[in-house]
Amino acid sequence: MKVRIGISAGGESLAPGAMTTLGQAVTEYCFDSLWLPEVLSRPGPDPLVGLAWVSGAGLKIGTTMLLPGRNLVWLAKAVATLDLLSGGRFLLTFVPGLSIGGERQAIGIPAAERGALMDAALPVLRQLWAGEVVTYDGPAGSFTDVSVSPRPVQDPFDVWLGGNVPAALERCGRIGDGWIPAFCTPEDARAGKKVIDDVAAEHGRAISPEHFGISLAYAPPGTDLGAAPLSALARRARGRPLDQIIPIGLGGLRTLMESFLAIGFSKFIVRPLAPPTEWRSELAALADAVGYLQT
Description:
Number of domains: 1
Number of helices: 10
Largest sheet: 8 strands, parallel
Number of strands: 10
Shape: globular
Radius of gyration: 18 Å
Strand order of the largest sheet: 8-7-4-3-2-1-10-9
CATH class: Alpha Beta
Structural class: alpha/beta
Helix content: 40-55%
């Protein structure tokens, strides 16, 4: 089982030089990849634009990206272009998006409709990435006799899915290539993996055991997870104590990652709960604490 650790830099507005420095530090400290999430209503770069900026550094790049509401032809072309520019090193996880605060309105698609849109959109994107001439008329758009060029370097182009509600698990089993949820305990993850594997088997397919991971935010030592600014995170935890989901300190992060490894989750996207003062020193400390887990 190949253990890989990616670094997420969500939540900060990174200047061009800082973005380049961060990409270099990810490579220098032997982390697997640099990730930029997509949350429309919060600070931070557009993931496709930001990742294109750093892709020339030769590192793997990834994003957890919104799918509902996208123009499928535009999205297929943008993703394929970035995979080409990165030399086939683009990692993509689609998510339905948050349904809290201003993000609910910013996405522009009611939460109840997003799952059906993802179900409709992903098979069409796969056809476009495969170089097919596609005609589509459905909930995710309408177009006739369209093909996309360039095509992704990766063939087939894998798409992982996020989310840990029942509908998201079922969708991953039916049409996903991997699963990387957030805000869940190892017990949640174990149960979710079983659902995904069972659904995949029912549809005559299987998810690679190498394609299960977890997105983890970690807090600095001394963080009070009960503080008011973390109330939005508490809502995403769905009643679970935050200290079971967000580890405190690098030792706590290491212990939780080892718990996920024990149940077969081998891919990680980790990020500090708040942007660090200086990314290079943060990654140096992180490499000392958990870098040895990579194999």
